[in-house]
Design brief:
Layout lengths: L1 H9 L3 H13 L3 H4 L5 H24 L10 H30 L8 H7 L6 H23 L3 H9 L8 H34 L2 H25 L6 H4 L5 H6 L1 H13 L7 H28 L1 H6 L19 H16 L1 H26 L5 E2 L2 H22 L5 H9 L5 H27 L3 E2 L1 H22 L19 H26 L3 H27 L22
Parallel strand pairs: 1-2
Helix pairs in contact: 2-7, 4-7, 4-8, 5-7, 5-9, 5-10, 5-13, 8-9, 9-10, 9-13, 9-14, 10-17, 13-14, 16-17, 16-20, 17-18, 17-20, 18-20, 18-21, 18-22, 20-21, 21-23, 22-23
């Protein structure tokens, strides 16, 4: 089968095959996210995570049936069917949404495409076809891997509930068609919004608005996933309090399509299925039209109009965040995160984790009317939000934004190195520690008693300070300005290594704080220890910074190459 696919691929036009391979490497920034920029390794790890998630869904449904009498299995599966199907569809749409946001600009032409490909005898339609095919390849891999286990196990378990000979194959076809249709709807909707926005606005304004839309889309997909309720019965589908969710959430629309194709859709939900079919048609037609118009009408704008919007005349005010050098580097770091797609996407991955944890906490608080007591789960959630915010910012600090920033700071270094290192610390505190702390404070308002909540926020501030100091040990460069050696990030190793280390440290700290919040003397001793640790790390970094030398170039390790000849 692999050989036949390869032969079919070789029959395609050579221009398409070459562009497809190149665009496939650029769908995701492999230099920043993969180990040694290995495409196969990255896609393999990506597929492995999705397969594991699919296996978890299968165990969640099938596992309880292994521990109950066979006579009770049909009743259990019948009750759990709707919940499992809704969870699978909503997770599929979340994964597709996140992939679409990560590959935000991968489908539309950029300046490099126009400058390199315009002089060549390649039609815009060939470029468009290659880019869309590359993006759909990654999207198709995600759909296949995420549903690899559920798409095979669910039909055999849930399809047999219909009792007919065609129940299992019909369930199988309905399941896979629904997953593909939901993915195309979400992918097409994002492309439609991007395409028509770029057509209606000047390119430089679109680039600024596109960054905002990308971050909003991250938050929107996560918010819908974590805040949307699961509706397991027909009576709850007909309840007045759920009608707003049914009307607005595409998850329920495609759940209705799945049951319509499966032959189990109640007549009361036929309108939701019709809404899904209409939305799918609009998304596909809109994406096709917007992409065609962009490649035929706006490719010249990519070269003719600047990418950055010139500053508008009028009064400008920027907050002072320390001395002038510290303020300049903090503002430079913030603008790098908002203007650079590479930094924005990498940092948004960690912000998505922070936002997901916050939404999970918020959903639990919204489900109870009375004020909740402070719990160990809330302590752990705030620790995780703080840790991932700091890890995310520290991860993107090493990625350069432009060579211009490199030589400007190198030629204007009038202050000692310790002043620049102090400004880097200020950037970490302002852009990671303070936002995570404020988010935790907002989530703690419904919690009681206030004395314990205030005590925890004080401990959380010290915890963030300690993590910030630890993350900057040996970091003697200005954020986003040091040249970068491709393939050395080892993103997966850093992420999972940090996660394991964090769990081993945070769990004992959580139990220690939980006991301290109920005993004043223990709390005073704990805060004193944290202050001493934070002050010691700060003093150590300050002492090292006095003799440190800023570096702006990452050089490869010196290696001695031998011919491997042995003397006889």
């Amino acid at each position: 089968m692999h050989k036949s696919i390869q032969e079919l691929f070789e029959r395609l036009p050579r221009e398409f095959r070459v562009l497809y391979r190149q665009f496939l490497l650029r769908v995701v920034d492999l230099e920043a996210l993969s180990i040694q920029a290995d495409v196969i390794g990255f896609l393999g790890q990506f597929a492995g995570v999705l397969i594991m998630l699919s296996m978890i869904f299968v165990v969640r449904l099938v596992g309880p049936t292994m521990m109950m009498p066979p006579a009770l299995v049909p009743a259990f599966l019948s009750g759990a069917a709707w919940s499992s199907e809704q969870l699978t569809i909503s997770t599929m749409m979340l994964v597709v949404g996140i992939i679409t946001v990560i590959t935000w600009d991968a489908t539309f032409p950029d300046r490099r495409d126009v400058m390199v490909l315009s002089p060549l005898p390649i039609t815009p339609l060939t470029i468009l076809s290659a880019k869309v095919s590359a993006s759909l390849s990654v999207l198709g891999l995600a759909v296949l891997m995420l549903n690899l286990a559920t798409g095979l196990v669910y039909p055999s378990f849930l399809g047999s509930l219909h009792g007919s000979l065609w129940g299992v194959p019909r369930f199988f076809v309905a399941y896979w068609f629904t997953m593909i249709a939901a993915s195309l709807f979400l992918y097409g909707s994002v492309l439609t919004v991007q395409g028509f926005t770029s057509l209606l606005l000047p390119r430089r304004v679109f680039l600024r608005l596109s960054a905002i839309l990308q971050l909003v889309a991250f938050g929107f997909f996560l918010g819908v996933y974590f805040l949307s309720p699961t509706i397991p019965t027909l009576a709850e589908w007909q309840a007045p309090e759920n009608q707003w969710w049914l009307a607005c959430s595409p998850t329920y629309w495609f759940f209705a399509v799945f049951n319509q194709l499966n032959g189990s859709l109640p007549t009361e939900l036929a309108g939701l299925a019709l809404r899904a079919w209409i939305a799918l048609g609009i998304a596909v037609v809109g994406a096709t039209a917007s992409l065609m118009l962009c490649y035929l009408r706006t490719m010249k704008k990519t070269v003719e109009e600047p990418d950055l919007v010139p500053g508008a005349s009028g009064l400008h005010w920027t907050p002072r965040l320390g001395n002038p050098l510290q303020s300049a580097i903090v503002h430079f770091s913030f603008r790098s995160l908002t203007r650079s797609r590479q930094h924005r996407v990498a940092f948004a991955f960690f912000l998505a984790i922070v936002f997901a944890i916050a939404l999970a906490v918020l959903r639990g608080e919204l489900s109870t009317a009375a004020p909740e007591p402070l719990s160990p789960d809330f302590l752990m959630s705030t620790y995780m939000m703080m840790a991932f915010a700091i890890l995310g910012l520290r991860s993107v600090f090493s990625l350069p934004i432009s060579l211009t920033a490199n030589w400007v700071l190198r030629t204007t270094q009038l202050c000692p190195s310790q002043k620049y290192i102090a400004a880097t610390r200020r950037s970490m505190l302002v852009l990671a520690v303070v936002p995570a702390w404020l988010l935790s404070a907002l989530l703690s308002f419904p919690l009681r008693p206030f004395a314990q909540v205030g005590g925890h926020l004080a401990v959380l501030a010290l915890f963030g300070w300690i993590l910030a100091e630890l993350s900057l040990i040996g970091f003697y460069k200005v954020p986003f300005t040091c040249s970068f050696l491709p393939g050395k990030t080892n993103f997966q190793i850093v992420f999972w290594g940090f996660f394991v280390l964090f769990i081993t440290v945070a769990i004992p700290l959580m139990f220690q704080e939980w006991e301290a919040l109920h005993e004043l003397s223990l709390y005073v001793r704990m805060v004193a220890v944290l202050i001493v640790v934070a002050a010691a790390l700060w003093a150590s970094n300050l002492y090292r910074a006095k003799s440190a030398i800023l570096y702006f170039e990452e050089l490869p390790d010196e290696m001695i190459t031998t011919l491997g000849l042995m003397s006889m």
